[in-house]
Structures are given as C-alpha cells and as structure tokens.
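Model: You mentioned two targets. I'll fold them one after the other.
Researcher: Yes, keep them separate.
Model: Target one:
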Amino acid sequence: MKALKNLSLILLLVLTFTGCHDKSSKLADFNRAVYTPEYASGFDIKGADGKKSVLVTVTNPWQGADSITTYLFIARDGESVPEDFTGQVLGKDAERIICMSSTHIAMLDAIDEDRCVVGVSGIDYISNPDIQARRDSVGDVGYEGNINYELLLSLDPDLVLLYGVNGASSMEGKLKELNIPFMYVGDYLEESPLGKAEWLVALAEVTGKRTEGEKVFADIPVRYNALKKRVTDAAIDAPSVMLNTPYGDNWFMPSTESYVARLIKDAGGDYIYKKNTGNASAPIDLEEAYMLTAQADMWLNAGSAASLGELKSQFPKFTNTRCVRNGAVYNCNKRLNAAGGNDYWESGVVRPDVVLHDLIAIMHPEALDENDRELHYYQRLE
C-alpha cells in the first residue's frame, strides 16, 4: 500500500511538471523587460515569467518606416512558441549567421562571436581579419536584387541579419519561402553614436550571449563620456566644421541631430550648417556649400579623397577655401582595404569612443595627452 501511494505521488508530480512545461504561452505573456536600451531606440528584448525564451522587437527598421514593428522569437529549452505569434522564430541560439551588412560582423566580433558568420554580402569590402582569413569557407551571397539563394541555402543559416533602406528588404519573401528566419538590424537609423553601438546587445542575444554583450557595451559609454568630459572641462573654443562633398549637383548636409553632428558636438566642434533640424540629410546647392566651406575652420569626411591634391583635382573650385589653404581637411578613410572597404563604417560603428577620440585629437589635441593623439579612423589630407 505504501509503495502504491509513493507511485501515485510520483505520477502526480510528473503529470504536474509535464502539464506546466507544455502549457502554451501567449504573446502577451512576454511583457517582462529583459533588456531595455539606454541609448538605442529601435529594439528591445522581453521575456516571460518562468521562461528562458525571449522576444526581440525591432521598431521602424528602415528609413521612412512609421509604426512598423517586426519580431523575432528565440525559443529555448524546448519551450513552445506563443500560439498567437506570427513573426520570425529562431528555434535555438544562432550558430550560423548570414550578415548582409559589415556592421553586423563588427558587432558579432565585439562579443567574440564572428566565428558564427557563415555568409556575407560583398566579402571583398569587409575589413574584419577573421572573415578574410576564412574567405574560402565564408559564402558571399551577393547583394539585394542579385542574391545567390542556392548558395545561401547551402550555407544552412540559422538566421539572416537584414537591413532595410527605404522599405522592407527584397529578401523577405524568399527567406519566408525557404523557411529561413531573419531579423532586421536598424543600427544605421540611430542618431546617437552610443545608440548605434548598443545594437551589439541585440546580436549578442541571438547568439545566446546577451550577458557578455551587455558587459562589452557597458564599457563603451564609460570611455566615450570620459573623453567628452575632457573637452567640456577644458572649456575650449569650438572650431566650425564643414562636412561631406558634392553628389551630382547637390551637397547633402546632415541634420543637426545626426550621428556625425552629435560626434562633432561631443568632440568640442561646431557643425556649421544649422538649417537642417530634420531626421535626414538635406541637399544644398554648390554655391551655398562653397560659402560654408569658405567660412569653416575644418572640413571633415571629404568624400573619397586620400590626399589634398586629389581633393583639389576633384573639386578645383574649393582650392582657395580657408580649410584647404590651411590644410585643415580630414577624411575618415585611414583604414581602407585593398578593394576600398572602409573599416570606419564597419568597426567604427561599435567603437564610437575611438571615433570620438579621433575627432578630439583633430579639433582639440591639447585635451589629450601628448602620446595619445594618434588617429585611428581619420587621417589628415596632405
């Protein structure tokens, strides 16, 4: 009789545990904040009580998006997908990832997970040394509009990381047809330099390394703000800064709230164009651009020019502007690879502290120690 009671108790416990484990969840259950970004505005991560699975929400993932939300559910420990969920599902932590942007690679590299990258877009233009060392085994799937889906499928990806420009990626439909999950990464839409870098936490989540990602990211604002404070404490006059070069008959000027304008401000500079306060670059004519360049103390991000002579040859009208005469022209192309890929747009996105250091070294070298003024991404055009 005692043995029968013990057996009954065991069966009851098993049934109770099984019933709880198999109980279907609803999307609304995933309302517990797992990670709420401090600087980024385009993603968050939520969980549910008693669950190891998480929901990654990406908001307005391309330029011009309005109230558009995409979801990736990461199912862990055999937990079921919410019965009312209709978004993308990753059935385990991603071990094989295709990155459609080089910045995705840099984010994975920051958490030592670039080994997960099995496919890329435009391998020749990627700076990451690990990818280049493995280029015989990393597939180049091509560019949007000309994707090699046969190769993509052969890479057996767990996840494809996408980005949208002026709308949803053209890859969406085919990936759904092939039953390959994807997630949008909207780092390029963030205006905050730290917000761009914070997306590495979202990528850390899909590889099951969110804790490591949080630790890596936590150090970046500390370094960034310490550099920013050096300039603030020094109370130095702000040099006026001109940006970019012409594109056709127009010269596109970033917003005063843009990523680059914020970096200039934090480095103790004064972005010269104050008319654009929107959320996208605005075109000005070449006459206005000439007047601005003539007034500016410095000229940054000067197109593709690698020397002052090259800049003068490309834009002879600007040869006599003060910036050019004084040799105060700097470009963010110090780290180009043989094909012309620029590491500024790759690792620079996850190292805003290093970019800020460069800009302080350019604008206010006196705020840095004498042996700490070497430029990493930028170079002076000579």
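Model: Target two:
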Amino acid sequence: MKKIITNFLNDIKKEIENTKKEKSIKKQIPNLLTLTRGISPIIIIPTLLSNNIKLAIIELIIFALTDLFDGRIARKYNCVSEFGIKLDCVCDKIFVIGLIIPSITKYPILLINLLLEFAISYINLQSEAKNNKPKSTINGKVKTVEVDMGAPILEATKIPVSSSAKIEDKKVKAEVKVKNKKIELTCVSMGNPHAVTFVNNIKNFKVAEYGPILENADIFPEKANIEFVEVVDKNNIKMRVWERGSGETLACGTGACSSVVASRLNGYTDRKVNVQLLGGNLEIEWKPNNHVHMTGPAVTVFKGEWIDE
C-alpha cells in the first residue's frame, strides 16, 4: 500500500512540475473537473443523510456530468495525460463509494458492493504499482487498452533502407540533405518503415516542408513514415508524424512505437515513455522480451446498428 501511495504522490508531483514548465493552467481543467468527483462524497453524503432527495439528485447529475466532460475537454485541447487517466479511475471509485455509504444502514446488502469497490480499487492500484495498467473501472467502462505491437525490426534490408545507411550500436542511421541541411535519421520498422529525427522545438518545426522530402528520399525504396521528435525528459517525448502517402496526421501508433525505440537506442529516454501527439497521448513501453507495448485511452468513436438484409 505504501508503494501505491508513493507512486500516486510522485505522479501528482510530476504533473505539477509539467504544469509549471508549460505554464498552461488550461491543460489542467480536465483534471480539476475529475477532482470534483473525488470530493463529491463530502457534499452528497450529508445531503442524502438529511433526506433531501431532490437536492441529492441535482448534485448527482452535476458530478456525473464531470465524468462526461473531463475526457472530452482533454481530447479537444490535446491534454490527455497518463496522470489524468489514473485520476479518473480513482475519482470514479470515490464517487460510487460516496453514493453507497449513506444507504448501507437502510440496505445492508450494499455493504458487499462497497467491499467489492474497495477490492477492485486495491487490485487496480496494485497492478499500477507493478507497472501494469488497470484495464477498466466499474460497470465495465474501459478506460485504457494495451496492445502488443510486436518486436521492432532493426535490420536495414528489412526496414527497408538502402545500403548507404550506417549501423551504429544496433542503430540504423541515415542522413538526408534537405535545403543544404543534413537531417539525421534513426530507422526502425514496426511492420512498416519509419525514420525518426530529433528536433528542439516540435511545435514550430516545419513538418509540411521537410516531411515529403524525407518520405521520398532515395534511401527508402518503399518510402517511409517520418517522425519528428522533441525529447522532454527520460519519460516524455513530443511527436509529430508525416505518414507516407497521407501527409501529417494527428497520431500514428507504429510511429509512436518507433519513436520510443529510436529514443531509447540513442540514449535519450528510458524504455517506458509517454508520447504526446497532436491527437492525444500514448504510453509506449519497449519490454525486456523485445516487444513494444502501446497503451492509450479507450473512447467511443461512433455507434451503429448492423442490419441484416
């Protein structure tokens, strides 16, 4: 339990440091909305105990709406964070527990539900402490999904990259001249070819200018997806991607994996890294078994109905 609490406190500390570094309070609005669910029992429990049911229903609706809007706002303003996902899981549990407690005296059977909530929370937090993601919260609401993306390919002929590429400590390195400037690339394949270059300011980098030239460089016989990466620290990078045949896109899963592999090979990051993309955040981990795992938030994209003719 001590390790769980320590990890969560460290996450809070990192989030505060990142906020100070980026000087953006706006990015914390989703987390503040989530926190209101965490403190909701302080307001709801006294209302329920006083039998003011109408007010309790209004409070319940308001706090429930925070669960609807925190994620939407985070995705809209590209500030989805691993800390926010964890905080959402914890506050969801606190919210439900706060609803159950006042009813236990009248309906003792709810005590079983309460104990189950504590048990599920503890298991999920234990899983988090061991660096395994809790996959869902209560009511089957999936928060994150982890995918095994396979092992990275680091052989030039299999990526593929032309014979002009250099091999340096397992790194497949290449250079492309763009407007009298040499661009260094670390080449990786995750089933499709990627070339990663590291830049100082990803926000202002001219991706649309450099992307198509690098994509179609002669050293890539099948063209390549180009990742532009800014290293924030050992556990965080920012990435923009120019996908072959498509141009710049909001995100790329294999690109995020390739970027972390390249960052690790160059000694810039650890094996477990949070990747900040235009379309949201992904957590990538290059496991000891050489497989790369990708974890990200699960959201509803669309709903439909299958009609048999």
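Researcher: Noted. Anything on target two?
Model: Residues 53-76 form the longest helix (24 residues).
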